[in-house]
Amino acid sequence: MKVDRGSDSNVVRLTRDDSPLNSGGGGGTYDGMEPRVAALEADMKEIKADLKKVLVDLSYLRGKADAMPTTVQLIGFVIAIFVAAGIARYFGH
After folding, report:
1. Is the pLDDT of residue 44 over 80?
2. Residue 14: in which H helix or E strand, if any?
3. In this structure, are residues 5 and 15 in contact, taking their beta carbons and an 8 Å threshold?
4. Which one of 11, 32, 62, 83 is at 20 to 30 Å from 76 when CA atoms are compared?
5. Longest C-alpha distance within the chain, in Å?
6. Alpha-carbon torsion 40, 43, 45, 47, what sign?
């Protein structure tokens, strides 16, 4: 795709470039396509490895969150402490 501004700077015309991709040795419209694709593929391998690490960390955090008590359990624990303290005070004297 080519951008042509023409004589009027406020008008932009996009034209389609139908030239074929060159294979192998380059030397045409798309010079250096093979090294660029190889670099992108290498970057994708690195991104996939990083994503696997993130997923492992996320599953660890999910396990920690699942092990945390719920609000109802915490409220019940606090009430149980107050009840135990009241019983200890009543029978303690």
Report:
1. yes
2. strand 13-15
3. no
4. 62
5. 100
6. negative
CA distance 38 to 29: 18
Q: How many CA atoms lie within 13 A of 51 on its CB side?
A: 6
Percent of the chain as helix, strand, coil, to the nearest 5: 60, 5, 30
Strand 2-4, strand 13-15: pairing: antiparallel
- pTM score over 0.90: no
**pLDDT of amino acid 34:** 85
The encoded tokens of residue 69 equal: 């008590």
Give domain limits for the chain: 2-92
Q: What is the pLDDT of residues 52-91, one digit of tens each?
A: 999 999 999 999 988 888 999 999 999 999 999 989 888 8
Annotate 44-75 with b (16+ C-beta within 10 A) or e (fewer).
eeeeeeeeeeeeeeeeeeeeeeeeeeeeeeee
